[in-house]
Design goal:
Elements (H helix, E strand, L loop, with lengths): L3 H16 L8 E2 L2 E6 L16 E3 L5 E7 L2 E6 H11 L2 E3 L23 E4 L4 E8 L23 E7 L3 E6 L5 E6 L5 E6 L6 E6 L3 E6 L5 E7 L5 E6 L5 E6 L3 E6 L4 E6 L6 E6 L6 E5 L3 E6 L4 E7 L7 H4 L7 E6 L5 E6 L3 E6 L5 E6 L3 E6 L5 E6 L4 E5 L7 H10 L4 H5 L5 H6 L5
Pfam families: SOCS_box (PF07525), WD40 (PF00400)
Keywords: Repeat, Signal, Ubl conjugation pathway, WD repeat
Protein name: WD repeat and SOCS box-containing protein 1
Length: about 425
């Protein structure tokens, strides 16, 4: 018979184990909307098929993703959703019965969405949509002549390649417009300024960010240096005044995009930081890291306001800095400003509220690499290692009056200006994002 001490030890171990186990919350499963499965040849190499980026056009007209190797596919988003409703969730992208109408050479059909398959000439690592506002002038004011006159309805797609080149395509025709050559390594991410100026920023493994003016025929305006290792991702603030860039060695940088100078470096992660995104009001910044965490920052003062952990108990800095099997690959802010989505190596997609430390919805996903919300925020798209894309319905909740007030005022005021408002302290607390 086991001794009394043995029973005591077993009981103590049982209760200790329970204390280290997270509470069993019944997370709600997100509803699957559809799948776009990449075609696979019998002897197709697995390396090079990765879908590193998915993107929705600013006006919601198109969805684009890398099918692997050199191919980017552009599909009209509304027709894609209609196909899911008519044919179920599965949609193999080379299926002739489900194929969307292709773009033809008829100029009268230019602005009618058509499917395109673009051969970029090399492995595609990044892509981004950009739309123009004719009234927004080029920053290079001395140039009086341009090869391209971008109109009101101009929609561009930028693709970043393995050889360091960036190719700019006309979305409506599928034609190549510009070939930007200056990076010496992989172009890992691309982002357009949201103000319609067609300012493009590229992040590369050559440790630099480069600023391009597409209204000036792709002139490279500035090189932003500061990263000591690969730059993985970059994102503009909604007003285009600030840029965040993240990379290896725990680096999170904020840049002033009027002066092209560094504002501050944010410290807190314990491993490479691989993704970043601003909230719609510009008051919050989300960063995802291989240290199993997503941080929500106040970019105006550098405070960490929220931490979303993907491993329980939270790993120590030494363990978080290594191979912990919970690397967070991607993070994206919803357009309601209330939710974010994260994608990790534990085969889960998580939806979080910015004011709660546990997921409100989850979805299973193996080998995920990237995610992005649709323009209206109703759908999340996620890309995988095999070049496929999966779609889920996002959480839909009525925002509180406090959230609506905060977003309204933070669209026009940074943290410091809100704190200096001549209003009662309780009202200031009501209007502030707090830890």
């Amino acid at each position: 018979m086991p001794s009394y001490n043995a029973f005591s030890f077993i009981l103590a171990f049982f209760f200790l184990r329970r204390s280290l186990t997270p509470p069993r919350l019944e997370y709600m499963r997100s509803r699957t909307i559809g799948e776009l499965l990449a075609p696979a040849a019998p002897f197709d190499k697995k390396c090079g098929r990765e879908n590193w980026t998915v993107a929705f056009a600013p006006d919601g007209s198109y969805f684009a993703w890398s099918q692997g190797h050199r191919t980017v596919k552009l599909v009209p988003w509304s027709q894609c959703l209609q196909n899911f409703l008519l044919h179920g969730t599965k949609n193999v992208t080379n299926s002739s019965s489900l194929r969307l109408p292709r773009q033809n050479s008829d100029g009268g059909q230019k602005n009618k969405p058509r499917e395109h398959i673009i051969d970029c000439g090399d492995i595609v690592w990044s892509l981004a949509f950009g739309s123009s506002v004719p009234e927004k002038q080029s920053r290079c004011v001395n140039i009086e002549w341009h090869r391209f006159r971008f109109g009101q309805d101009q929609l561009l797609l930028a693709t970043g390649l393995n050889n360091g080149r960036i190719k700019i395509w006309d979305v409506y025709t599928g034609k190549l417009l510009l070939n930007l050559v200056d990076h010496t390594e992989v172009v890992r991410d691309l982002t357009f300024a949201p103000d319609g100026s067609l300012i493009l920023v590229s992040a590369s493994r050559d440790k630099t960010l480069r600023v391009w003016d597409l209204k000036d025929d792709g002139n490279m305006m500035k090189v932003l240096r500061g990263h000591q290792n690969w730059v993985y991702s970059c994102a503009f603030s909604p007003d285009s005044s600030m840029l965040c860039s993240v990379g290896a060695s725990k680096a999170v940088f904020l840049w002033n995009m009027d002066k092209y100078t560094m504002i501050r470096k944010l410290e807190g992660h314990h491993h490479d930081v691989v993704a970043c995104d601003f909230s719609p009001d510009g008051a919050l910044l989300a960063t995802a890291s291989y240290d199993t965490r997503v941080y929500i920052w106040d970019p105006h003062n550098g405070d960490i306001l929220m931490e979303f952990g993907h491993l329980f108990p939270p790993p120590t800095p030494i363990f978080a800095g290594g191979a912990n099997d919970r690397w967070v690959r991607s993070v994206s802010f919803s357009h309601d400003g209330l939710h974010i989505a994260s994608l990790a190596d534990d085969k889960m997609v998580r939806f979080w509220r910015i004011d709660e430390d546990y997921p409100v919805q989850v979805a299973p996903l193996s080998n995920g690499l990237c995610c992005a919300f649709s323009t209206d925020g109703s759908v999340l798209a996620a890309g995988t290692h095999d070049g496929s894309v999966y779609f889920w319905a996002t959480p839909r909740q009525v925002p509180s009056l406090q959230h609506l007030c905060r977003m309204s005022i933070r669209r026009v005021m940074p943290t410091q200006e809100v704190q200096e408002l001549p209003v009662p302290s309780k009202l200031l607390e009501f209007l502030s994002y707090r830890i």
